[in-house]
Amino acid sequence: MSSTRTLVRGGLVVTAADEIHADVLIADGRIAALAAHGTAAAETWTADRTIDATGKYVIPGGVDAHTHMELPFGGTFASDTFETGTRAAAWGGTTTIVDFAVQSRGHSLREGLDAWYAKADGNCAIDYGFHMILSDVNESSLKEMDLLVEEGITSFKLFMAYPGVFYSDDGQILRAMQRSSTNGGLIMMHAENGIAIDVLVEQALARGETSPRYHGEVRRALLEAEATHRAIQLARVADAPLYVVHVSAEEAVAELAAARDKGLPVFGETCPQYLFLSTDNLAEPGFEGAKYVCSTPLRPKEHQAALWRGLRTNDLQVVSTDHCPFCFSGQKELGRGDFSKIPNGLPGVENRMDLLHQAVVDGHISRRRWIEIACASPARMFGLYPKKGTIAPGADADVVIYDPHAEQTISATTHHMNVDYSAYEGRTVTGQVETVLSRGEVVIDQREFTGRAGHGVYTPRSTCQYLN
Length: 468
Prior knowledge:
Layout: E1 5-14, E2 19-27, E3 30-36, H1 40-44, E4 49-52, E5 57-60, E6 62-67, E7 72-73, E8 76-77, H2 82-91, E9 94-102, H3 109-120, E10 127-133, H4 139-150, E11 155-159, H5 170-183, E12 186-190, H6 194-206, H7 213-218, H8 221-238, E13 242-244, H9 250-261, E14 266-270, H10 272-276, H11 279-282, H12 304-313, E15 318-319, H13 352-361, H14 367-381, E16 399-409, E17 428-438, E18 441-445, E19 448-449
Helix pairs in contact: 4-5, 5-8, 8-9
């Protein structure tokens, strides 16, 4: 931990709640004080290091609550390790990730969690926590959920998709939800009707429809909406809160909005790919569309308006990346001739903060809403606030100096994720991360990486702060 004092002077501090021209004093890895720029209080501060943020935003480090580093999938592994993935996150202004530990079928939650602790330990450039994927809901794994909540693993992901791999049936889902209703955990749901999708996959392949675009066609928006509706009703029966991950379809947003209108503790996340990409990308010529294969899939462009509206009305609360990169060469190519064998996932952990700032420039969201959906809400949702997600006395000094006027072109030739393509190749955005502090330590200094593997520490989480 840093024992030096750092002063960030002259910037516009933007949090979910406020915008204020203020100087920020950092001591011992935490925010020590804020004072309006030019006031007597601020003028008396001394520091070992002063960062001039004039003309820049001073924002909390991003919290990406949905990443998959080194995830095993479809006979291969996500191409970012905890080291490369967290370094790329830092470059993009994200200072905390919450990744997914995986329980394998027939094994305990503890074994899965310990394997992920081992992967991440000593390798992360920024702080990290874990959710737990439940692949095998039974008496012993239900009991283990209670122990994990006590240990700071306070959220559990279940899948209505991927039969034979991660899939849980409605009875298993109900049991897990009933357990979380008593232990304070939050159930995260991949809501797609995987049983029906598998039928459509089989039928498409039998018709010779093998190219990447058919991935989007078989994973129907209606089957996302149906599963979202079913998850909500099961959560109501269990009297449990629900967080639906990677919402991509207008019809699914409508299900969440209807539940929230009833006052139910139902939450939704979307991802940059659904806000900025579409089925046009999946239909790119040759095998190029494979780069954009993820689940839930990209939707036709007309769905984007509903997602932006959901973010403005707070029917969607969080934008995470679902960062799960596979190289085009040698990994995505496993699905040549059979779209169902293309590993599912896109790279994005480095691009999220910039793409969402572009949304501010484009008038989709306000500056404060940008910070809310990218920093504060994910921190609150997953029990990290106010340690993470804000700039306030006592918070960890996870601080980003952000240049709102810099223009950059997103490209695989310049990104830091360990993957051979960019989902946003050639897109020009306004705004760029300049300097990043993680717990007071400068990890990106004027667009130079100065961090190190092992600086990032495991961060236990309290339960969802929207329910307290």
